[in-house]
Automatic annotation (TrEMBL):
Record keyword Hydrolase present: no
Gene3D superfamilies associated with the record: Ribulose bisphosphate carboxylase, small subunit
Pfam families given in the database record: RuBisCO_small
SUBUNIT field: Heterohexadecamer of 8 large and 8 small subunits.
Classification via HAMAP family: RuBisCO_S_bact
The protein's name in its UniProt record: Ribulose bisphosphate carboxylase small subunit, chloroplastic
Summary of the function given for this chain in its UniProt record: RuBisCO catalyzes two reactions: the carboxylation of D-ribulose 1,5-bisphosphate, the primary event in carbon dioxide fixation, as well as the oxidative fragmentation of the pentose substrate. Both reactions occur simultaneously and in competition at the same active site. Although the small subunit is not catalytic it is essential for maximal activity.
PANTHER family: RIBULOSE BISPHOSPHATE CARBOXYLASE SMALL CHAIN 1, CHLOROPLASTIC, RIBULOSE BISPHOSPHATE CARBOXYLASE SMALL SUBUNIT, CHLOROPLASTIC 1
Keywords: Calvin cycle, Carbon dioxide fixation, Chloroplast, Photorespiration, Photosynthesis, Plastid
Lineage: Eukaryota, Viridiplantae, Streptophyta, Embryophyta, Tracheophyta
Other remarks in the entry: The basic functional RuBisCO is composed of a large chain homodimer in a 'head-to-tail' conformation. In form I RuBisCO this homodimer is arranged in a barrel-like tetramer with the small subunits forming a tetrameric 'cap' on each end of the 'barrel'.
SUPFAM superfamilies xref list: RuBisCO, small subunit
Domain Ribulose bisphosphate carboxylase small subunit: start-end pairs: 11-119
Domain of life from the UniProt record: Eukaryota
Amino acid sequence: MLVVDPYNNLKYETLSYLPPLTDEQIAKQVDYIIRNGWNPCIEFDRVGSVHRTNFSGSGYYDGRYWIMWKLPMFGCTDAAAVLREIAECAKEHPDSFVRVLGFSALRQVQCAGFLVKKPSV
């Protein structure tokens, strides 16, 4: 089974090469983030991939940082709450990619991230 077109396919985030995730599959990934004590965060972006627009020198890329949807969900213990925020973000920004991240307050870094929605163009 060919999952991706190897020539005309941008790479976005972890799991982006798979068919779209169901809500149940997303909830399992979010549960993993919560079980590890990480804070879920939702971000969106119209481009969705790392690109070079403003400067073409080495080491600089536009598109590394996406727009945060609200604040990280500190203390979140329910994957259903994250799913509701994903749906709200996707409804508000139908032309954008949406991803979920897991941030560790201890390590002060992103420990998980995956794409949950591609634009409905």
